[in-house]
Amino acid sequence: MDYFDLNMDLTKEDKEIRAAAREFAEGVMRPISLELDKMSAKQVIANDSPLWEFMQQAYSLGFHSILLPEYYGGQGLTPLQIHLVFEEFGWASFGLSVFLAVACFPAYCACMTGEEELVEAFVKPFCECRDGSVRGCWAITEPDHGSDVIAIGEECFTSPEMISSVQAVLDGNEWVINGQKSAWVSGGSVATHALLHCQIEPSKGFAGNGICIVPLDLNGVSRGEPLEKIGQRDLNQGEIFFDGVRIPKQWMIVGPEFYVPMLDIILASANLCMASWATGLARAAFEESLTYTKQRVQGGGPLLEHYSMKQRIFHLFRRVETCRVVSRTAMNLNFSISPPHVEYSLWAKVQCTEMAFKNIHEAIQIWGANGLTREYVLEKLFRDARATLIEDGNNETLARHGGHVLAETYPRRPLDF
Ligand SMILES: Cc1cc2nc3c(=O)[nH]c(=O)nc-3n(C[C@H](O)[C@H](O)[C@H](O)COP(=O)(O)OP(=O)(O)OC[C@H]3O[C@@H](n4cnc5c(N)ncnc54)[C@H](O)[C@@H]3O)c2cc1C
């Protein structure tokens, strides 16, 4: 279903990009996502899984590299164009949107360094890949450290008592890595590369961390079982173990001196993606409900003909439009400036995931019992939306971080372009 766009300045190219994303979202992503949702976590990543058809098609259309600059071989989309694509992807499947986006995380951060060696090793092969065989993940959380690792500004973050499982020690020209990342690493069971957060100077707590890129076929890397969960079942997740894994010194792209600003950039970017996918999710709930209430007859007429139902449908619509304005505004800001104004990414993620969840919760009420059955897409959207309130940072933790940023920076000076 197409939608009217409040943004009257969309160019022909913007509209073409959106149309291509919609075609892929409707024709490939949504149907495959529905299939995967019914499979076990092991089946989702089996060799004959439709997941690989999704990846192959996404990569062949260049959707894997839309966050990367053209200079490095990416698609070089504007922030608005990225949003247009991501809203369609979020409409089709939140889980597959995450799986595809984290695939670019190692390359995304390697681009930021501008180091030729890293670009050659990690960006070019990723951008040139057309079959999904080069895919990254973002390994930051650990079994004992979830919210802690993003609690920038809080006492615990710099406490020497915060000992990471994953430690990296310099040995000559190589880093030696030991430890374990959590079962929640998206794509963790099948990624070929990890953007890995590891502790280098434990006396500084998490502020003593570094970020490196680790090819996951190196000696000493092993994986756990893929995780079974209630929502986003199409998104593979699994733990990764490191046992004396050696990488060249240069692959540690950030050490403690720049760790916090880099973490802020990664979080701000990831949260913007979450907000734009949530817009698509909120829209899916609205559109499904609009269609349903035109068809379902109660009280002598279609549900939509009843006054109170029109009011309820309108509330679904207003949340979609609000999500879109919020997430586009934040994306336009923080994908245009450096360093990002993190509070706006946090605002967008928290606001949009809450509104998407509210929309789906309300949509199920509108559908009545049919909203609860596996026969229709709604119950999947509900399960998927629930996870978004925790994913990429619990919304409460993100709000605490936002409050910390405001305490430090408000009021910000106007931007001077
Ligand atoms: C779908 C999904 C995808 C994910 N993808 C990835 C990924 O790609 N890579 C990765 O590394 N991780 C990933 N995660 C993990 C995710 O980042 C964590 O789940 C999240 O940061 C919260 O951590 P936790 O689950 O350990 O909760 P906890 O940190 O244990 O928090 C539990 C509760 O306690 C509250 N709480 C925690 N600390 C405090 C405090 N100091 N003060 C007050 N309240 C507190 C929290 O708000 C929360 O309500 C993913 C998770 C999900 C659900």
Write a structural description.
Helix 4 (79-92) packs across helix 9 (307-334), helix 8 (256-295) packs parallel to helix 10 and helix 10 runs antiparallel to helix 11. The chain has a four-stranded mixed β-sheet with strand order 1-4-5-8. A hairpin with a 2-residue loop joins strand 2 and strand 3. The chain has helices at residues 12-37, 41-44, 51-60, 79-92, 94-102, 105-113, 116-128, 256-295, 307-334, 342-367, 378-388, 395-409; strands at 136-139, 167-171, 174-181, 193-199, 209-215, 221-223, 240-248, 252-254, 297-298, 301-302. The chain is α+β, with helices and mostly antiparallel strands. The two termini are 37 Å apart. It contains twelve helices and ten strands. The chain has three domains: 12-128, Orthogonal Bundle (Butyryl-Coa Dehydrogenase, subunit A, domain 1), CATH 1.10.540; 136-257, Butyryl-CoA Dehydrogenase, subunit A, domain 2; 259-409, Up-down Bundle (Butyryl-CoA Dehydrogenase, subunit A, domain 3). The mean pLDDT is 97. Flavin-adenine dinucleotide is lined by residues 102, 138-141, 146-147, 182, 184-186, 232, 387, 390-394, 396-397. Flavin-adenine dinucleotide (FAD) binds next to strand 1 and helix 12.
What small molecules does the structure contain? flavin-adenine dinucleotide
By DSSP, the count of extended strands is 10
Order of helical and strand elements: HHHHHHHEEEEEEEEHEEHHHH
Proportion of residues in helical segments: 40-55%
Number of domains: 3
Strand content is 5-15%
Please identify, by name, the CATH architecture of the largest domain: Up-down Bundle
CATH superfamily of the largest domain: Butyryl-CoA Dehydrogenase, subunit A, domain 3
